[in-house]
Amino acid sequence: MEFVERRAHALETLAAEGVFDNDDHPLIGVLDRQAVRDRVRELQDAFGGPGRRLHTVAAKAATLVPVLGWFAEAGMGCEVASPGELAMALEAGFDPSRIVFDSPAKTRTELRHALELGADLNIDNVQELERIDYLRPDVAHDPARPAPGIGFRINPQTGAGSIEAMSTASHTSKFGVGLADPGTREMLLQAYAARPWLNQLHVHSGSQGMELKQIAAGIAAVYELAEEINARLGYRQVDRLDIGGGLPVNFASEETAPTFREYRAAIEDAVPGLFDGRYALTTEFGRSLLAKAGTIVARVEYVKEIGGRQVLITHAGAQVATRTAFAPESWPLRVGLHTPGGELKDAGSGQEGAGLRSDVAGPCCFSGDLLTEDVELPAAEPGDLVAVHDTGAYYFSTPFAYNALPRPEVRGYEVDPDGGVRWEGIRRAQPVEEILAESGGAAGAPRAAHR
Ligand SMILES: Cc1ncc(COP(=O)(O)O)c(C=O)c1O
Fold first, then answer.
1. CA 446 to ligand 1 center in whole angstroms
2. Which of 117, 185, 273, 425 is the most core-located residue (most Cβ within 10 A)?
3. Are strands 99-101 and 200-202 parallel, antiparallel or unpaired?
4. How far apart are CA 13 and CA 19, in angstroms?
5. Is 377 strand, coil or helix?
6. 55 CB less than 6 Å from ligand 1?
């Protein structure tokens, strides 16, 4: 069974189970585990060849411990950027040697913890390097374990993509050290010469909106820097390159494009020496591994007509589709309309002649709380379901607490060849008591601190 068929089948099963009859939580996020497995295999196959590979999943794309566990089981590593993500990665079962710690704002405590664990560490700036010097990375890690990859994050300053807020290779991006800035190259050459434990370089040009050519240009700049450092030192001190993530996702149709193979071809074209086995390669993909495997399904509560538009008021809005609500041009989503039983009424919004000009709105109290605007949909009715496609990364896993709306339930699913659907509980829906406790209510309030 192909992904689209599996997704339709899973949705009908949820509807038959009465999941959307629950007035407290008429909304769920689901992830197709087979689709995630397929993407991991595509990545591993596309990067075949000599030399070590450490493919990590960017935890920020799905901060859900069981989902991270799927990647640990598949032999991947995990890229983390906060103490919470690090704790999740450890709980999900990643060996610390397969964890990469990024973050532009690492505290001394976080640095010490990462070094003691033996995780790879990407240094954001010179002040952070001074803190690491003090912590003595050459003696901090267990000598029985392989030395971790430690090195600078480089901003290649090769230019922004189509989404400014997601671009980390613009001239003034806050991440890493600016390679084209005066003095940076010499500073790096001297820093590596003075510290034999600096053995890695890192680049991540941005997430979504970057063209493959731009990503490849950033990787080429860092590869050339590694060659220069090694040539100056006379031996291969830098033997690992962390080339980040950022493969864009196609949100416009069911097609997966570009593919990991196309990504490899683009970087191999720009940096032919990258895959010859001299450098161990680390990757940090998030969105491209997860987005298309995930779907938000929400009940339509009301349907009204305003100003000539059919407006569907659903339970999915900015709390689960935050970027789409605040920057709809950059983050458009496809929405399918289904009957209360889960049968498809319309495969994807926006088809000419499909019906009524419609907005699909969420439950939040601001008017930009829309999943999609002015698309054609068939006549909808209360109790129908909307399926919000390609939302497996950075959507339901990364909720926004506006209006004190609860974090929705998340489940994984697998469809057996005989059509049976096996569900895996990933996160329960957040109960109101928990919202109250987190908001300084009786159960959670540190009252004394406010006196
Ligand atoms: C350092 C780093 N690595 C990897 C990623 C994952 O990017 P993507 O989900 O676009 O693959 C991000 C995303 O922000 C990042 O900041």
1. 35
2. 117
3. unpaired
4. 9
5. strand
6. no
Q: Confirm if 427 and 410 have CB atoms less than 8 A apart.
A: yes
Would you state the pLDDT for residue 347? Answer: 54
The residue from 269, 290, 311 where one domain ends is 290
3-state secondary structure of 134: helix
Distance between CA atoms of residues 253 and 153, nearest Å: 34
Q: Is the CB of 206 under 6 A from ligand 1?
A: no
How many residues make up the chain in this entry? 451
Nearest to 335 by CA among 310, 353, 361: 361
pLDDT digits (tens, 9 = 90+) for 404-442: 999 999 999 999 998 899 999 999 999 999 999 999 997
The residue whose CA has the least distance to atom 13 of ligand 1 is: 207
* pLDDT for the residue 163: 76
Does 286 contact ligand 1 (Cβ within 6 A)? yes
What is the domain count for the chain? 2
Residue 289 Cα: closest atom of ligand 1 = 11
Number of H helices, E strands in the chain: 13, 19
Q: What are phi and psi of 146, to 5 degrees?
A: -60, 145
In a domain, 213, yes or no: yes
CA of 284 to the centre of ligand 1 (A): 6
> pLDDT tens digits for 287-305?
999 999 999 999 999 999 9
**365-404 burial by CB neighbour count: b if 16+ within 10 A, else e?**
eeeebbbbbebbbeebeeebbbbbbbbbbbbbbbbbebee
What is the number of other CB atoms lying within 10 angstroms of the CB of residue 86?
A: 23
308 with 256, same domain: the answer is no
Domain of 344 in residue numbering reads as 3-31+292-431
Residue 79 near ligand 1, beta carbon < 6 Å:
yes
23, two tokens: 């007035």
For residues 291 and 74, the answer to whether their CB atoms sit within 8 Å is: no
Residue 155 and residue 104: Cα distance in Å, rounded? 12
